[in-house]
Amino acid sequence: MKPALGFSLVAFGLALVGCRSPEVAFTDMDPRPAASIAGRLLTVRIGVDTNIPSSEVWVRVKAQVKDSTVCLAGYPSYYREESRVYSVPLPVSANSEALAVVWVNPDGSRVAVPVTK
Question: What is the rounded average pLDDT of the residues 14-28?
Fold first, then answer.
């Protein structure tokens, strides 16, 4: 095999790997995310990413509060351990009784996260 062809194949393979979505789907975690509300604090307990064979893949969570919905998304963290408990301070205007918590999957679909109050 010519060196230029080998290099091209390796570069193409790395480009394909780089196109993979960085997000973690709700069903990729074990145990599945669950949330609880206490006062003005939402606590989310998440699992580890089971979609990747390495046991050292943790999930980093990002949250966004929109009206009465908390949107959560997960990203793999390969190099450092992340906490499996994530806290989101709720704004004063948020009604904890009517609050919905959803996990946003890489394809944009939303999954309701079970909430205990």
Answer: 59
- In tens, the pLDDT along 68-79 reads 899 999 988 877
Rounded to whole angstroms, what are the CA distances from 100 to 17, 32, 71? 34, 17, 9
Bond before 91 cis per omega within 30 degrees: no
User: For residue 27, which of 74, 91, 82 has the smallest C-alpha distance?
Assistant: 74
3-state secondary structure of 21: coil
Sign of the Cα torsion 22, 23, 25, 28 reads positive
For residues 112 and 33, give the distance between their C-alpha atoms in angstroms, rounded to a whole number.
10
For residues 38 and 115, give the distance between their C-alpha atoms in angstroms, rounded to a whole number: 11
Count of residues making up the chain: 117
* CA 21 vs CA 67, 85, 99: distances in Å: 27, 23, 28
pLDDT for the residue 1: 53
